[in-house]
Specification:
The structure is a homodimer.
Chain A: E1 30-33, E2 36-41, H1 56-79, E3 89-98, E4 108-118, E5 121-130, E6 133-144
Organism (chains A, B): Shewanella colwelliana
Pfam families (chains A, B): 4HBT
Protein name (chains A, B): Thioesterase
């Protein structure tokens, strides 16, 4: 089973959060789980907020990259046939409620629920769960990457 | 002039985004600029989204840490005398609109405007500006760090 991010084109796979071609980054991998999407990630010991807890910026990053990946997969499933490359999505709006401190030292689960799919816009909710507790809830509007973001090599 | 984050207590200065005691992290520094707050940050070459642009997770991280730092400073200015330690704030809600792709290779400016100050809650807006262009706008609700987040050493 290939991760959504592993289906991105080679020249659009350098994202620090989820690009397979970024050796410095998190290389987040997202998958279908029935009609929801899932990714797992264990923060490094230095991804600290207050000691013992994960910093909010990483939580935002994980929700963001799981969201754009899920948007790509959802749009591909809805509008593309198997010969077509999945469209690449970027974030237009990201809202996160931090509900509880996210503990360090355990694997985090990201779970996405697609709320709306149009060819150029996907709306979704993403939960970040630690040991069964939802620590953050994200709501995202993702839009198809505009052609103006393609820099010619 | 000391940065807001350099006034955090020693044992609460390990944040990956802004802690002076986290050698792996971004060590963001925020300051007053009249009644607004400002921080400057130049992303590393590997903080990529699509090649040429900064990834959204870093943008969220910078807005988040500039926001909690600004909240701490605003609450200290409003409610503390000079003998008291500034209160440490954490993020309850973070909303970001990504208005334009953020270009790599230049210094980014974060600018905070305090909208509401209570002893345990600060609301603020934060703009991320690249070469005069506002690329992202954040709205944050920061709350005083609950005692339950203090882990005894």
């Amino acid at each position: 089973m290939q991760a959504f991010q592993d289906l991105y084109p080679e020249d659009l796979s350098h994202c620090y959060g989820c690009g397979r071609n970024n050796p410095h980054g998190h290389q987040l991998k997202s998958y279908w789980d029935d009609d929801e999407t899932i990714a797992l990630f264990t923060p490094k010991s230095f991804h600290t907020a207050i000691p013992g807890f994960v910093y909010g910026g990483l939580i935002a990053s994980l929700i963001d990259c799981h969201g754009t990946g899920s948007a790509s997969a959802a749009a591909a499933r809805a509008f593309c046939d198997s010969s077509q490359e999945p469209p690449r999505f970027v974030t237009a709006a990201l809202n996160i409620d931090y509900l509880a401190p996210t503990p360090m030292g355990i694997e985090l689960e990201l779970r996405g629920v697609i709320r709306e799919i149009k060819p150029k816009k996907v709306v979704l909710d993403i939960s970040l769960i630690a040991a069964g507790v939802t620590c953050a809830k994200g709501h995202m509007v993702a839009v198809k990457m505009p052609a103006s973001m393609m820099i010619e090599a």
